[in-house]
């Protein structure tokens, strides 16, 4: 039996590998996600009235091989062993094709160095991934080393698997917090950005929603602002169950609005916009950009958002009427793991599109230099060290977007088993200073996915978990990829 187990384990190590999910996620980030982020940005438009209508189109993205820039200015390729011994960062240069367009006339495209991306050891852009066992030994590497980590200033660091609530679904639970009886949580995720929504039902039957900078807004006001203006339409969309409809009626008296614009004005007043002329505009932008962004961020999606909210409201009422069971937050079907590619995409978006991000700096630099009466070369306006420094800093310290800490950790090298265990570590976002008894307990759905015995003693017990020995992490599917499948299944159901 022992020999059979070892044979199985060796086969799993060769075919799957213990950190294959991290390598696949990083490879996906390099090949698909970075070009996707750049294509979403598409065009940079500096305001230069002296020249006319000017814009910079972002084109093809390429990444080089891991390299180092020496003191004499020369650039040469390196291997991880050299990065470790010389305290270097194992990284590769990123190049983006940029095309200036002046008054709709395109100039010659220029390939610009955008910065350096830390390279994951044994990823597709790492030379070690194509080496044989003997070549790895000659390169000063352990042939059994799984890879899946970064080398930052000579130190090996990993991105820890992070546990999150499954996005884009309604999770309803009963609570006993003062006047609130039931809560529904919706974590709406779009392009790595999560907008949290909370629907609360009070013991008087009224239901409110909180999201972005909106706090406890009556749900009917929001549904009417989205386009379901009549009470009849709202009730019809809510449910065909008379008990659910009757339980909801009290909410119709929570707003005086009878039209969409009146509801938008109420939202503007609720978020304390004093000038009446700005209220509707601010409220409209709020519901388009920050309300359920996974459904879309354009005006055409408002009715779809309204219908989604009516179904979430109906679920909350059915839970109160004991027509359905509450969702189990600790059930592993309601959890998702953020891998290296997910975490790096969130960080890259923040660096490029943040308030003082690289795109803002490019726009500002071009406008500043043009006002001095000269047309600057594109490489001169791209501060490539901004991207490099922020990526390296985040990986070196472990501080991530949203104030999260401990995302990047120094790789444990006490033994081979410790190394593998550390790289399959799963962190909960819950704070270790509070009880969270249910979250810390072993859940039946952990079986086969998480190790049932390995968790540290002390304050992090049950919050720091480890993947089971042969557990795999599958890749999620994007919403747009599911739509053709769902429409096909709808046709099949109709035929039957």
How would you describe the overall organization of this protein?
This protein starts with a helix and ends with a helix. The mean pLDDT is 90. Strands 1, 2, 3, 4, 5 and 6 form a six-stranded antiparallel beta sheet that branches. Strands 10-11-12-13-14 form a five-stranded antiparallel beta sheet. The chain has 496 residues and is an alpha+beta fold. α5 packs across α8 and α11 crosses α14. It is globular, with a radius of gyration of 26 Å. The protein contains 17 helices and 18 strands. It folds into three domains: 12-159 and 339-429, Rna Polymerase Beta Subunit, Chain: C,domain 2, CATH 3.90.1100.10; 170-333, RNA polymerase Rpb2, domain 2 (Dna-directed Rna Polymerase Ii 140kd Polypeptide, Chain: B, domain 3), CATH 3.90.1110.10; 440-496, no CATH class.
List keywords for this structure.
single chain, 496 residues, alpha+beta, Rna Polymerase Beta Subunit, Chain: C,domain 2, Dna-directed Rna Polymerase Ii 140kd Polypeptide, Chain: B, domain 3, 3 domains, 6-stranded antiparallel beta sheet, 5-stranded antiparallel beta sheet, globular
Structural class: alpha+beta
- Number of extended strands: 18
Largest sheet: 6 strands, antiparallel
Cα-atom radius of gyration: 26 Å
Q: Which CATH top level class of the largest domain fits?
A: Alpha Beta
């Amino acid at each position: 039996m022992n020999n059979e187990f070892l044979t199985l384990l060796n086969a799993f190590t060769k075919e799957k590998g213990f950190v294959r999910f991290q390598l696949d996620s990083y490879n996906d980030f390099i090949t698909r996600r970075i070009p996707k982020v750049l294509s979403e940005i598409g065009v940079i438009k500096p305001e230069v009235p002296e020249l006319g209508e000017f814009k910079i189109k972002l084109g093809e993205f390429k990444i080089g091989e891991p390299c180092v820039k020496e003191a004499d200015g020369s650039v040469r390729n390196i291997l991880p062993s050299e990065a470790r011994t010389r305290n270097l960062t194992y990284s590769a240069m990123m190049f983006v094709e940029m095309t200036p367009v002046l008054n709709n006339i395109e100039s010659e495209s220029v390939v610009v160095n955008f910065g350096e991306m830390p390279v994951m050891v044994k990823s597709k852009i790492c030379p070690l991934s194509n080496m044989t066992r003997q070549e790895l030994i000659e390169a000063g590497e352990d042939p059994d080393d799984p890879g899946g980590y970064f080398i930052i200033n000579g130190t090996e660091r990993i991105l820890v698997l992070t546990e999150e609530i499954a996005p884009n679904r309604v999770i309803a639970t009963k609570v006993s917090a003062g006047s609130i009886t039931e809560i529904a949580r919706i974590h709406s995720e779009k392009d790595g950005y999560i907008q949290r929504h909370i629907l609360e039902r009070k013991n008087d039957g009224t239901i409110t929603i909180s999201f972005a900078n909106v706090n406890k807004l009556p749900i009917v006001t929001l549904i009417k602002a989205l386009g379901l203006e009549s009470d009849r339409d709202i009730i019809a969309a809510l449910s065909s169950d008379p008990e659910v409809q009757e339980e909801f009626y009290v909410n119709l008296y929570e707003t005086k609005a009878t039209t969409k614009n009146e509801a938008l004005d109420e939202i503007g007043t609720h978020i304390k916009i004093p000038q009446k002329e700005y209220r509707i505009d601010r409220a409209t932008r709020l519901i388009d950009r920050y309300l359920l962004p996974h459904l879309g961020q354009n005006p055409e999606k408002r009715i779809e958002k309204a219908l989604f909210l009516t179904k979430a409201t109906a679920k909350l009422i059915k839970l109160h009427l004991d027509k359905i069971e509450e969702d189990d937050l600790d059930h592993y079907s309601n959890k998702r793991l953020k891998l290296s590619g997910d975490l790096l995409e969130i960080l890259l978006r923040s660096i490029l599109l943040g308030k003082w991000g690289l795109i803002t700096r490019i726009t500002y630099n071009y406008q500043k230099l043009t006002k001095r009466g000269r047309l600057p070369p594109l490489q001169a306006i791209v501060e490539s060290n901004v991207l490099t420094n922020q990526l390296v800093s985040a990986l070196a310290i472990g501080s991530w977007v949203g104030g999260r800490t401990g995302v990047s950790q120094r790789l444990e090298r006490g033994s081979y088993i410790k190394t593998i265990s550390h790289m399959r570590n799963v962190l909960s976002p819950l704070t270790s200073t509070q009880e969270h008894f249910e979250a810390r307990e072993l859940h039946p759905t952990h079986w086969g996915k998480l190790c049932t015995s390995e968790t540290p003693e002390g304050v992090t017990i049950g919050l720091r978990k480890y993947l089971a020995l042969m557990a795999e992490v599958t890749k999620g599917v994007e919403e747009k990829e599911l739509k053709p499948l769902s429409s096909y299944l709808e046709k099949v159901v109709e035929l039957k």
